[in-house]
Amino acid sequence: MATQKILVHNIELAKFMRIEQPDLNNPLHRWLYYLTHAYMDPEKWKEVVSMSPGLSAFKAKHDRAPYDPELTRWARKVNEGILDQLAREESLVQEAMEQGIEQGIEQGSEARGVKIAINMLRAGMDYNVIAKITELPINVITLLADDVTKSTQ
Known about the structure:
This protein is mostly helical and 153 residues long. The protein has helices at 13-18, 27-36, 42-50, 53-64, 69-122, 127-134, 138-152.
């Protein structure tokens, strides 16, 4: 009795499609590239197919299969859905990066204000003037003043 070995790959197609230059020396990448680039240049298809005998046999059967407009519409919708998902993910990443940058700027600005307030306290300036210039709340200025006083004693 003959047995067949099956190799199963768990693939996140959206992640694969983000790869700018798939490793076409990797058989799995060749198959995925072939399957996800239905509208690629015919010369590129020939190159990819020529690198893998199994893919070549599949393409030969695929080319002989009757054209099914319903299946083609479905495949296009799936491809568009994947591309839409990629666009949404990229948008979320960009938004998160922008929020992180804004938070970093705010934190840096606040840290700078604290340093300036400490220097102003050491110079003996009035708490209200320091609060106005640094835009730090007066209670923060008071806490900083206590720390400055403790550190000089």
